[in-house]
Amino acid sequence: MSDERELPPEHGIVSGRMSGASFVDASFESLYKIYAPVVIGWLVVRVESNMVEDLVQEVWTTSRRSCNRAGSNCWSKPVFL
């Protein structure tokens, strides 16, 4: 039996950003592709359908602003995820 655990999908993205191998915009785009469907699914059952798109945008805008304020610490401790 192997002790290796499968790493979460964001591991490579965050690791790449922390090492400088990827740019912030590309990293956020990758995270968006992974997590936007999760955020949408969560919102669809909690708010009116006409609000979902705006709220999804607000989630990512807020995350990006928080990351910009945190600077390099954003990628070492991505608490906004």
Number of strands: 0
- Number of helical segments with 4 or more residues: 4
Please tell me the overall pLDDT: 84
How much β-strand is present in the residues? under 5%
* H/E topology pattern: HHHH
Overall geometric form: globular
Rg of Cα set: 15 Å
Largest sheet composition: none
Helix-residue proportion:
over 70%
Give unreliable regions as ranges. Answer: none
Domain count, please report it: 1
Name the structural class. Answer: mainly alpha
Report how far the terminal alpha carbons are from each other.
31 Å
Descriptive key words:
single chain, mainly alpha, 70% helix, 4 helices, 81 residues
Chart the SSEs and their pairings.
Blueprint: H1 10-19, H2 24-44, H3 49-70, H4 73-76
